[in-house]
Amino acid sequence: MLGMTLFIFLSIAAAVGNVNNQNPDQEVKVALAFGLSIATLAQSLGHISGAHLNPAVTVGLLVSCQISAIRAVFYILAQMFGSVLASSMVMMVRPQNITSLGVNK
């Protein structure tokens, strides 16, 4: 849950931006935030949960019979809760003049 919370918070917080900024730096910033945060979290938290930072990883390990179905369900529930928690945190710390998350129109 901690890993997914940090990943979503860092990634979405980087995506919050000015919709009037049409420069390519926005895309580079978001891409680097996603890539560096997932790499850093996988390295730092991988020994705790096996780097289950995404439900797709958990489902992949479930399909390959490397974790039990019960453990997979609990991991996925924790990841979903962490995502909701991180999204709520971003909504609380975002600038008040920004009404949406992300730069998409």
Automatic annotation (TrEMBL):
Q: Which SUPFAM superfamilies match?
A: Aquaporin-like
Record bears the keyword Nucleotide-binding: no
Task: Using the record, list the residue span of the signal peptide; answer none if the entry has no such feature.
Answer: 1-21
Which UniProt keywords are present, listed alphabetically? Membrane, Signal, Transmembrane, Transmembrane helix, Transport
What is the membrane topology noted in the UniProt record heading this document? Multi-pass membrane protein
Q: Which GO terms describe its molecular function?
A: ammonium channel activity; carbon dioxide transmembrane transporter activity; glycerol transmembrane transporter activity; water channel activity
Assign the protein's first listed, main location to one coarse class: membrane
* Gene Ontology biological process terms in this record: hyperosmotic response; renal water transport
GO CC entries: membrane
State whether keyword Transmembrane helix applies. yes
Q: Where, subcellularly, is it found?
A: Membrane
**What family does this chain come from, according to its entry?**
Belongs to the MIP/aquaporin (TC 1.A.8) family.
Name by which UniProt lists this protein = Aquaporin 1
